[in-house]
Amino acid sequence: MAARVRPDTGEARSKQRYRVTNWSEYDRSLVNRGDLTIWFDDASIKDNWAPPPPVGRGKPGLYSETAIQTCLTIKALFQLPYRATEGLMKSLMRLSQLDLPVPDHTHMSRRAGEISVKIPRRPRKGPTHVVVDSTGLKIFGEGEWKVRQHGVGKRRTWRKIHLAVDETTKDIIGIEVTTADWGDSEVFSGLLDQVEGEVSQVSADGAYDTKGCHAAIADRDARATIPPRDGAVPWGDDHPRDGILKEIAAKGSAGWKNDSDSHRRSIAENMMYRLKQLGDSLYSRTFERQVTEAHVRAAIINTFTYLGMPQSVGVGQIAPAA
Question: For the Transposase DDE domain, which residue ranges apply (predicted)?
Fold first, then answer.
């Protein structure tokens, strides 16, 4: 296979320089991420710790889905095993003077494969520009040191996390978890179905350049900004993708990306980086629990986002090195 190399023009490319305009508020939000009262709200826990009475006959449960999600959130946030999570939750109950039972580690593990995680989402204020991408989280296999020294082994296995992100508010508005043999375009329609409200534009990379993805975007009356793959040919019948090909031919790839805001799909790539700050591996052994674990991390990331995000503005360019 021939390698494609960007030709060297002999000119060093300058980089854009940015400045955060709300540093004091963003600095405080970073501090608040470690505030236990945000993740362990006494009043909310007291009112929602026990589930509602069962309908018909049956023994009432001790722990609601809110209770289990709270435990799993503490576990994921501080990257604790189940037993340490149980101990931390008991100490928080004592410090808060709440006379509530705490699920043991086996109960947490069992319920983790059953609950439906509630991911916080704020209402949209207008049409949404959705950016989509996927990444992999390791479930078992060799560590990075062994891979660098001896290569990737056969037992290295991943789960794919597919995310839809609001380009403006930068929160997660859709998530799918699949095995590694699912393609990005195969789960795109289900991912877009999770986006509530009006969609104005969908930006993604070339992996989503399929007729199925374009059809799903058209069903939402949205504009698709997906770069066609190398060697792409027109689909005919005045398909919107053919217009993209014409624009790229007239303006060049960089010009089309700037005019269409396609480059904003980097927001999804940044979201993948943020997600992996909570760990680049999934620690659960069954697929159902792995899905729950990924959803809990998405809930944590959205809470981080709502606490405060940096607002950056361009202030010039950094001169290239001589």
Answer: 32-142
Report how far residue 255's alpha carbon sits from residue 232's, in angstroms, rounded to the nearest whole number. 18
Blockwise average pLDDT, block size 10, the chain, 322 residues: 49 72 94 93 89 77 92 95 96 94 95 95 93 89 56 71 95 95 92 94 91 93 89 81 86 87 90 93 92 97 95 72 52
How many residues can be counted in the chain? 322
Q: Is 195 helix (H, G, I), strand (E, B) or coil?
A: coil
- Radius of gyration of the CA atoms of the chain, in A: 23
* pTM for this predicted structure: 0.86
**CATH for the 128-287 domain, from 2.30.42, 3.30.2420, 3.30.420, 3.10.20:** 3.30.420
What are the beta bridge partners of residue 164? 132, 174
Residues of the chain with CATH 3.30.420: 128-287
Phi-psi category of 10—alpha, beta or left, where left has phi over 0 and alpha has psi -120 to 50?
A: left
